[in-house]
Design brief:
Number of strands: 4
Strand order of the largest sheet: 1-2
Strand content: under 5%
Structural class: mainly alpha
Shape: globular
């Protein structure tokens, strides 16, 4: 199927996106199911490629002619400039285990989010606009993961950013009171949140684009034409194009620039501040961003570029900086976001901080992988955690959506006691929480623990310390969330809703995705060996006699790992204060804060997001406002003055040319 699936997998969502507004005009009830059919077909396309990849990695045309072997580069001419600049840009698709893996993660998780949307967005008046951007979002992400070159991937990269802006600010028309006093209405606040995501990620992408252009320049110098294909960049045994960059002494700059885009998309420090505000969009949008699309793009790119930088670092040691930066930024971001999640008051923002933190673990794993001898193992665990996180984070966000749908508030202190009204949602969300924390046998216990184990193996106690401390913090904020929402006495807000019309479980179309995702979160941890062997291109595990051997070796590796038990201990340390404060309610945390000035100061520091967000607003937003007000004074609107400015500009340009 690959010769068809590689284009259909992203083409189908794009086609559905284009016709969605027209379908919505014909029938509001029709556009959702057709969108689900579209992403379902993409999921089938992705699944079909697994079979192709396992069948000896040979691609056949329908008549039986061998078309190629994995990795499979399928290209068609797009922009032909050979007569002018000896350059031709092709629309290319790269099919290999990594792109197949990512395509399956994206399409499968998106499918269940789309199904959930049928119930969650049923009464939305702008339903055509919603499905247009959701389909476009999924299609752009799928195009991104199967792109075979940097330029095409960057175009899809920017399409993903554009879709996130439109969906985060989706409810820009809302006239409800703003949650932020700086804005007149909730619609203004939502528009600001979407624009903030667009500006921050686009700022990061400027440097990313410069790095891509540096690659084009370096390959042009070496090969006589710019080369952006991943397979070609990796195929040079001497990595001469990297040597060209090294000759200029700009490897550190190139490293920071090439990582700027991934850090921006995946909300890593210092670009992490846009993601909490992304919660302004519908919960289904939040689930899609956090579980399957936007934020996974950065991790995917580092994984895709990983072998290029790894093999190049054997020849040019300065390239090791790539992995050092990835590891330290990932480890620090995991810790930073976890501290913010400990004090957040909004349900979706707690999950947003947990996303940033878990993405930090993935970057930590990829960075560690480039610094130790067992490269492949740490690399595979990082990707395993990507898949594991995609499932349990979609589960958590959709569970949060069911809760918000029932109680009409996003603040956890306005909830409480919901376990008896929404028992199915409670158990499903608890599965997601246990996976997030990393309690066996749920998925996080295997995927995240693998990253932590290799952080320990690296001998870098700073990175290992950040990783294990974050384990305790994750346990604390996760069970704090569960306690506030489902345990304790009902809040006055909940009692008011119960007295008016009651609180009930979500409808079946919203509950079924929760059950499916919870089931997968419960079992995916045991499929680690299969995922590892698929990603490395090994097919031996398909034989039945090797099934149990691989599983037992895998489980034994975790059960005999010292770091596994250290992590379990830290989970208990993090869980205990949450249990007594927010579940059993034996202590009152507010009274503890009142009595202890140090804890109160730490709480304020974390709640204000380490003041990083405030600094950004003051320096960038405030500075730009002052600059614009200064520039405004020279815009008089008088034609003679404008002509004088034009003449002055021309004279300066002539002077620069002469000099």
């Amino acid at each position: 199927m690959i010769q068809y699936a590689d284009f259909l997998i992203w083409g189908i969502p794009f086609i559905i996106a284009v016709i969605s507004p027209f379908l919505a005009k014909l029938s509001r009830k029709l556009v959702g199911p057709i969108s689900i059919v579209g992403i379902g077909l993409s999921c089938i396309m992705a699944l079909s490629m697994i079979e192709d990849a396992l069948a000896g990695h040979v691609i056949y045309e329908p008549m039986g002619t061998i078309l190629g072997r994995m990795p499979f580069d399928h290209e068609v001419s797009w922009i032909n400039l050979t007569s002018v600049a000896n350059f031709e840009l092709k629309l290319g698709i790269l099919i290999d285990p990594l792109s197949i893996f990512m395509a399956n993660v994206v399409s499968f998780v998106a499918l269940w989010i789309f199904i959930f949307s049928l119930g969650y967005m049923r009464d939305e008046p702008d339903i055509g606009r919603y499905w247009f951007w959701m389909n476009m979002f999924a299609g752009a992400m799928l195009l991104l993961v199967v792109s075979n070159n940097l330029v095409q991937m960057f175009i899809a990269w920017e399409m993903v950013g554009l879709c996130s802006w439109a969906l985060i600010s989706f409810w820009y028309k809302s006239t409800a009171p703003s949650p932020d006093p700086s804005f007149a209405t909730e619609g203004e606040y939502n528009a600001h949140c979407g624009f903030k995501a667009l500006v921050m990620t686009s700022f990061a992408d400027v440097f990313f684009l410069i790095a891509i252009l540096i690659v084009g320049w370096a390959t042009w110098q070496v090969y006589g034409h710019p080369e952006f294909r991943f397979t070609a960049l990796q195929s040079d045994p001497n990595f001469s194009w990297v040597g060209k960059i090294a000759q200029l002494g700009i490897i550190p700059i190139f490293t920071l620039f090439i990582l700027s885009g991934p850090f921006g998309k995946s909300a890593q420090f210092p670009y992490h501040e846009w993601l909490p505000e992304a919660m302004a969009g519908p919960t289904t949008v939040s689930a899609l961003i956090h579980a399957a699309t936007m934020v996974k793009a950065g991790v995917y790119f580092v994984a895709r570029f990983f072998p290029i930088m790894l093999y190049a670092s054997d020849i040019y040691p300065a390239v090791k900086m790539f992995f050092i930066v990835v590891a330290y930024v990932g480890g620090f971001t995991a810790f930073l976001a976890a501290t913010q999640g400990m004090v957040a008051k909004e349900l979706k923002k707690i999950l947003a901080y947990s996303t940033i933190s878990q993405l930090g673990y993935m970057f930590l794993g990829l960075g560690i992988a480039g610094l130790i001898l067992e490269h492949a193992h740490a690399y595979l665990y990082a990707l395993f955690h990507l898949a594991s996180h995609a499932v349990f984070k979609a589960l958590l966000f959709l569970s949060a959506g069911a809760i918000l749908h029932a109680v009409h508030t996003k603040y956890i202190h306005e909830m409480g006691g919901l376990r008896k009204y929404m028992p199915v949602t409670f158990w499903m969300m608890l599965v997601g929480a246990l996976s997030l924390v990393g309690i066996p046998p749920f998925s996080g216990a295997f995927s995240k623990e693998g990253i932590i184990a290799y952080a320990y193996e690296s001998g870098n106690m700073i990175l290992y310390g950040l990783a294990v401390i974050t384990v305790a913090l994750t346990a604390f904020y996760t069970f704090r969330m569960i306690g506030y929402v489902f345990f304790g006495e009902e809040s006055p807000h909940v009692r008011e809703i119960v007295s008016k019309h009651g609180i009930h479980e979500a409808e079946p179309v919203m509950l079924i995705p929760l059950v499916v995702l919870a089931f997968i979160s419960s079992i995916i941890g045991f499929f680690g060996p299969y995922i590892f062997m698929f990603l490395t291109g090994e097919g031996a595990w398909l034989h039945e006699e090797t099934h149990m051997i691989n599983i037992m070796e895998y489980l034994l590796e975790h059960a005999t790992s010292l770091t596994f038990y250290i992590s379990l201990l830290l989970i208990l340390i993090g869980m205990y204060p949450s249990y007594i404060a927010f579940i059993s309610r034996k202590v009152d945390p507010s009274k503890i804060l009142e009595r202890n000035i140090i804890l109160r100061g730490i709480y304020k520091f974390f709640y204000n997001r380490w003041y990083i967000n405030a600094i950004y607003y003051r320096v960038f937003l405030g500075g730009i406002k002052k600059l614009s007000s200064g520039l405004r004074r020279i815009q008089t609107g008088i034609s003679n003055v404008n002509i004088a400015y034009a003449i002055l500009g021309i004279l300066i340009i002539i002077l620069l040319i002469v000099l």
